[in-house]
Amino acid sequence: MRVPAWLSGLGDDIRRARRQMAATPWFTAIAVGTIGLGIGANTAIYSVVDAVLLEPLPYHQPDRLVVVLQRGASPVSPANLTEWRAAATSYEGLAAAELWATTLTGVDEPERIAAVRVTSDLFPLLGVRPALGRLFGPEDEAADQAVILSDRLWRRRFGADPAIVGRTIQLNGHAMRVAGVMGPEFRFPPFWATSAELWAPFPLAARASSRSESIRVFGRLKPAVSLERARSEMATITRRLEAESPGTNAGIEVTPLTERVVGKVRPALLLLSGAVGFVLLIACANVAHLLMARAATRRREVAVRAALGASRARLARQLLVESGLLAALGGLLGLGLAEAAVRALAVVGPGSIPRLGLVRLDGSVLAFTAVLAMLTGLIFGVTPALAGSKVDLTTALRSTGARGATGDARQGRWRDGLVGSQFALAVVLLIGAGLAIRSFVARLSIDAGFEPAGVTTMVVSVAGARVGEAERRADFYRELLAGVGRLPGVESASMINHLPLAGDAWNQSYQVEGQPPAEPGQEPRAAYRVVMPDYFATVRLPLVAGRDFGPDDAQDRPGVIIVNQWLAERAWPGRDPIGQRISLDDATRQPHWLTVVGVVANAVRSDWTAGAAAEIYLPFLQSPHYRTSPSPAFAYQTMVIRTPGEPAATAAAVRRLIAQSDRDVPISEVQTLTDVVARANAEPRFYLFLLATFAGLAVTLAAVGIYGVMSYTVAQRTREIGIRMTLGADRRRILGLVVGRGAVVALAGAAVGVVAAIGLSGFMRTLLYGVTPTDPVTFAVVPVLLALVATLATLAPAVRAARIDPGTAVRSGDEPAG
């Protein structure tokens, strides 16, 4: 078979390239290392983007799945689902899920299990099947005796027993039969309650008319129905229902499930992808400069080959083959670096980034790396190959490379252009990192309202336990707190239903006495907290007026309430809030008035940067749901303990105290309040770390680039510099000449970078807090910083030029080393 002309001699080119690389090991190592860093960083970030954004959700035709929620995020009521099922025609089905927490007992160590209740049609709607057993049927919703386990729970608590299907387990003191076990890859829900390890039937028939907003609705669009049509139909339905029953169907949105899962993190990941792409371009510019410098030292070799009959295309191919081999080795190194980076990201990455634990170097990532390596080889190899293959035979063969030669002016412009582009890209990255740093500092300056240091927290659940019975629950909590307060080192202890930033975010409508009732659906709402005495003292949330709850605020005493400053200032502007009254009943009921006995400082709630909003606190002993309800939603409290002790030791001591009353009461989610606050800022900290790392790489590579160009220029212009000094130029002028040229190149690149950063900074808008995308401080500091970097990078070559001996330089005819 005839070999194509363009392939003829390719083997010789590869062998020659290998010999050339072996003959210059330092050059090869620097080039491969530079490209490996760029490719490795890009591969690692692409693997994250692939797993989080590109990989489809593990359900049947996930692009047809939607969620129907209030304002795209908040739960709706079972009555909503009942009404929508009856009226909507755009869906193959509408199903629901509700957060649930249950206690596994009857085993060596009781455990609180994160769980979800689902309608029986939800799993078929998703198109999933269990690895063992069966799914729920309609009969299970009525019986409420079946559960499905996650693979994690099955392996952790039941030893992966294949005979688990049909076995009875104890949950909240009730016997439940295991219907099935899901596969290890199954995660549901994918955007909320992501730690769920157990699923139980949701009794929709029994709660079909309930207006309690506690469920998330999932739907599958019919094949011929577009998202726009489904949204239009749902808008029509909810407008009608809202008109009939105000406040029941306001703000309903239909959102693609994939968008609900990854929409929040998409801007940040795309920004990081662009940033790491800039790093690779800077690396390519560095290697291109190295190749151009080496090509200058090989002009005589190339000229000899051209004289022996090698065409320019053949010479260019030889140089491209060398670039390709460097890129291939860089790609292999990059894969190794990416593997290490991916492992690190899985460990240090925040749990709020969906599917981060599934990131791996799979086939698509390997293909991406291979393509990236080929493109990289072309990017940094084409210009040096074209420049290096163009020779003037007469000049090149006659020349001995005297130091008086100034080199090819065109190549000099290319080198300056490469360095300028490096600084432009570095400016963009450094400005992005600067904005992220300024934003993160602004986040850290937010006053949490409380003092998290020294507070250990844990969830205590009495669901299904003897001490959880209505007549025993309050005494159990009080005795437990008294016992914890006597532990060595404990300053104070209390309880709250939902820990700020870490627990559920419940909201409650309220009415202020003496003010006209709001229209249905327009009632003011406040974060709803139930606390035991001393909660404010334990977390050091200041009381700014009035008093704390005490043991006398019991169920047989007048109802009391504590509000935060934000609510007090808006409900009673210019008036003393102490003694004022609030009702938490809706407009259909006779108001039950609660007297304000205290005002506390504003505190962060579920979102660190959301700002202050209304918050109310009720005493546990006056909250009948928390005192007596058998529902798991009310059968737990979060204990807060101010102590210098280690959380693990504190938790062990609390476990021993609980075991004295009831061994079936588990504690879970042991953590410090400091850790809770840190997790609230974990995602922006993660993005900041990566962006700052990429910016640091960019600045380093840009500095290396300008150092290399100036060193090469000094070597090329040695004879010229000697002549200048012979004619009277002093060392200071020579120093300024070299530094000045480097500064001009760097500043030109920085100017272009500032303009580009102004145009691109808007993409960071959603990631910033407390700083504008065109923050003048950042845009002023970054160019100054890079000017300093450029000056330092050119200083060593400039000093070397200033120390040249004029006589030796003028007489020398040696070829520069380049």
What topology does this entry show?
Elements: H1 10-23, H2 25-54, E1 65-70, H3 78-87, E2 91-105, E3 111-118, H4 122-126, E4 132-133, H5 138-143, E5 146-149, H6 151-158, E6 168-171, E7 174-181, E8 198-201, E9 215-221, H7 227-244, E10 252-256, H8 257-262, H9 266-297, H10 299-307, H11 312-348, H12 363-389, H13 393-398, H14 409-444, E11 455-461, H15 473-485, E12 492-496, E13 507-509, E14 511-512, E15 525-531, H16 535-539, E16 543-546, E17 560-564, H17 565-571, E18 581-583, E19 593-600, E20 615-619, H18 624-628, E21 636-642, H19 647-659, E22 667-672, H20 673-680, H21 682-716, H22 718-726, H23 731-760, H24 776-802, H25 806-811
Helix pairs in contact: 1-11, 2-9, 2-11, 2-12, 9-12, 9-14, 9-21, 11-12, 14-21, 14-23, 14-24, 21-23, 21-24, 23-24
Quick structural overview:
The chain has 818 residues and is α+β, with helices and mostly antiparallel strands.
Can you walk me through this structure?
By secondary structure, this protein is an alpha+beta fold. It has 25 helices and 22 strands. The strands form three sheets. Strands 13, 14, 15, 16, 17, 18, 19 and 20 form an eight-stranded mixed sheet that branches. It is elongated, with a radius of gyration of 35 Å.
In percent, how helical is the residue content? 40-55%
| Tertiary shape | elongated
How far is the first residue's CA from the last residue's CA?
44 Å
Strands, total number: 22
Strand count, sense and barrel status of the largest sheet are: 8 strands, mixed
**Helix count, DSSP H or I runs of 4 or more residues:** 25
Q: Structural class, from secondary structure content?
A: alpha+beta
Kindly report the average pLDDT value: 86
Uncertain runs: 400-407, 813-818
